[in-house]
Amino acid sequence: MSVTFKIRTRKKEGRAPLVARILNNKLQVDILVATTITVDVAKFTASPTGRLYANYMKSPEGVKVNELMASVTSALESYLRQGVKLTTDQARKVIDDIVMKEEREAEIRREEERRRKEEEERRVTLNKFIDQFIADIESGARQTDKGTNYAFATVKAIKQALRQFKYFQRDTKKEYDFDDIDMSFYYKYTAYLKNKNYSVNSIGKCIKELKAVMYIAEIEGHHSNNAWKDKKFKGTRIDIDSIYLTEEELDRMMSVDLSRYEAGHELARDIFMVGVWTAQRVSDYNNIRKEDFSTLVKNVMREEDDPEHPGEKRAWIEKHEITYLNVRQKKTGARVAIPCNSRLKAILEKYDYQLPHLEDQVINRYIKDVAQAAGLTDLVEIETTKGGTARKEMVEKYKLIHTHTARRTGATLMYLSGVDIYDIMKVTGHTSPAMLKKYIKADSLKVVEKLTDKYDYFK
Length: 459
Fold this sequence. Notes:
With 459 residues, the protein is of the alpha+beta class. Helix content is 49%, strand content 17%. 23% of the residues are buried.
């Protein structure tokens, strides 16, 4: 019983495969099987006692060839000892299983790695989900709970908040996935934002939007992490003292000479004033069209003493036209109707009720110039919290005016004029008094005046 290896070639050099001869007289086995073990012909066929052969068999290739021949020999002789009369096909399979073992194992590893990468590419990670979420709310593929498209300003705010999460990962050189969003992450992330000198509300917005993404991803089956639901994992928000403008200040802004400024300043002021007298967000009052206005005819009964019939009254009906603005608010989708007062009408008539559009940033820049020219330079104390530190500072009032000041001013002036708070809500579109309260910025003296004018109790 023996297994030997030979080269069946006439070549004197180059490479050639070995052929195994399997001989067992008892079992009448004498077969030749080609293997895939290749060797250097010149070195393998050199004299077994010579240096060339000895050096070759000590080389990495020679050691490998020796190991394979020994393993093949051991396996084949084991079958023969068990009385198995090997056929050529059986012997070839035994040899191939040994010789090709490493290659097959490597192929299995490569296939497993390929599948792992495919699964990883298919798996929805937190960052992939955020990217797709933003793309979907921009395109309208994903809508709000009310079945409406996300407003442009809302999409912009969400993108800005979630962008900070991407920056955090970049700067910390760590990619966070769903299961990584826990209290440890929270402390690191909020500390990172504080170090960037972000305000409490800005940090709160970043946390709020990340939690919203985690919630949506969870209900869609992308993760089961509950650590982010810890009551300490929250976006804090504080009510920032925001200014409003008095009617006297508005009159000063309307009468100021803007001849030394660019033409856009007058338009910016007029758009801002439309925001005041409609109490809408800039996304709504900066996009008003002529077709947004309607007219309501109201019949009013009038009467007076009848000079022709002493002691009797004569009556008649007067028709009053009420112009009002219809707005479907972009942020909430709520529809509101705002009666146009005389001040609002005067502005709108300048533009034939088709108010030109200005970019919000331009309005913010120009309205400060207008307010400064109008002398709104009184110092106002403001309190902010940035980087975790509360600060108070005195700032000239005109520097604090921006597009949202118009909405706050409108809501506050309605309140001070005695408009019922629930009627104010119908104009502003707020769904609760608590939310509206944040917009009413009357100082304590103005409230005292309002109370004493309205109620005899304080007189």
